[in-house]
Amino acid sequence: MTAIQKEHVPMLTGLLSVVSLAVVFGAAGGVIPQSAVPTPPERVLETIPHVNAVLSLTAIATIGLGWWWIRRGNVDRHRQAMVLSFALFGTFLVLYLYRLVSLGGPASFPGPAAVEQFVYLPVLAIHILLAVICIPLVYYALLLAATHTVGELARTRHAAVGRIAATLWLVSFALGVVVYAMLYHVY
């Protein structure tokens, strides 16, 4: 990466975060019309939540492995695990947004109103909040890693931001799996 990119990691982080969040909130808010995506077969729409649950569980494993490997000094394996985690997250998000836009909104909770109000919605809200907070943190850590050598990373906030990002990312993914279980298995 060039020196210019190294110097502008915060700006690039902000730009990527704003664009990403605009797409997500645009899809969730119905700004992106259903006609913007090809109409999928019903079976595809029914399969996406289950695929996303597998992607989430796999991401939990790869984030954990990345953390484990860096604590043992294996930078190459750490890098591979974290890049794979980001790719899993990206795949999850594309599938989720595709389904969200195709259906014209999120799935409704099929369980009792009391469970929805006091369990499901708070878990969903925390999951979404952590996911939103994670976006700039993950971008920042990845951009630092992409623009700096391993030796240079020690003089950046990569490790500190990475620890926070990984922790919040793990919790967000785990809560996403809880939301999935409540929507598709418990009720």
From TrEMBL:
Record bears the keyword Membrane: yes
Signal peptide region: none
Keywords linked to the UniProt accession: Membrane, Transmembrane, Transmembrane helix
Keyword S-adenosyl-L-methionine: no
Lineage top rank: taxon: Archaea
Record protein name field: DUF420 domain-containing protein
Transmembrane segments: 12-32, 52-70, 82-98, 118-143, 164-186
